[in-house]
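Chapter summary example: a protein plus 6-O-phosphono-alpha-D-glucopyranose.
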Amino acid sequence: MSGTHDFVVVANRLPVDIQNDVDGERTWTRSPGGLVTALAPIMRAKGGAWVGWSGAADTTIEPFEADDMWLAPVPLSAKEIATYYEGFSNATLWPLYHDVIADPEYHRVWWNAYLEVNRRFAEAAAVNAAEHATVWVHDYQLQLVPQMLRRLRPDVRIGFFNHIPFPPVELFGQLPWRRQVIEGLLGADLVGFQRTGDAANFLRAVRRFTSYGTRGQVITIGKHWTRPERHVRAATFPISIDSAQLDELARTEAVEKRAAEIRSELGDPDVLLLGVDRLDYTKGIRHRIKAFGELVAEKKLTVPAAALVQVASPSREQVDEYKTLRHEVEVMVGNLNGEHGSLGRAAIYYMHHSYPQEEMAALYRAADVMLVTALRDGMNLVAKEYVAARSDLGGVLVLSEFAGAADEMSQALLVNPHDIEGMKSVIMRAATMDPREGRRRMRALRKRVLEHDVAHWANSFLSVLEAVPQRTSHV
Ligand code: G6P
């Protein structure tokens, strides 16, 4: 089984949103997000294919071309959405890989669905990949695909990138299927991580749960005389955004005008604070609201001179922990506004929906203080977006040390979001920072983010992967 594409991306989601018109016509729009922006030029140049799920249940969609990419939809039944996606991916792996902030659940039926769906993705990749193609598999939903694909197609080069943290071995060890997951990942030639700490955790897990030898970042597989050796490299490639594009957008007159409008709609506060997240318990939204609420209660910040805008886009709404979180956040927002708001003026402006990129750019441009207070985060691209949008060198970034972005963005004000008092003083420091210091910090942050954009990320990963010697089809 082999196809015609020299480059194949395999990700849980397709890079487009598919809509069905009333007359049954199918249309699509490119979904927002850095991954597709980074990969689209490479896909175009190499005639690439993208294997992924459309987001709909029980729907078989024939492969089609969109945006110069060949899209190969993988169907999921309603039951598989509950067991593979909401279950094993988002109620087992997601909390386990994010420091067990929520309790991971271990269910054998969920694991079986994960196996089954990973097999389906591996088969779809095998069908689309040309001989000696490069296949790039993404994220925690598909950790078994590298090994499954290697069995089907020993000729292809396989890369895997983990977008979320890789947990310490003491937590990873809870997973009843830990060895299978490690073996799944080791089917790749290159396994990429966001932070050096993630790669180190993975290498420790390999040493703990397999008998393969490791030397530095290289793992040697199959050291038996009947099988040739194979090497797997584990390395760090911090992901980024299309910084130049956002920089340009944020400088436009329309965005500047909208930023000013937002401030005036909010009553021209002295200090406008901003949070932008998927509504996820890893993002530290409750901790942030608590710190802000205490500052208001203690009159260190007053309403309406200070206001917090919190954009929380809906996410994984069928998963229990997300339902609970939504309820808790909404109760906190209600309490705070009930206590400290007045007619026409709130302490927190909470929005449970997402916005187009222009509006986000305007919000970034309008905010004096950006609060990124994740309890654990693979990278956090909002931190990078804020910086890319601030060509005026205004604004201060408060950044959790538990977000991958902290490794690269040391000029931000780093916080431990569990330390509410500490976070309160950092917020006050950000709110009252001397503009000269703010500009100096922002300039350094922007240099990093503009130089290390998402194209740089994709190219560095692919150049390491493509340096792997080509194999024959018969190994
Ligand atoms: C994180 C994950 C992605 C995922 C995204 C949105 O960024 O790393 O793999 O696609 O969240 O989550 P969803 O469950 O809606 O795909």
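Key point: The first helix runs from residue 34 to 46.
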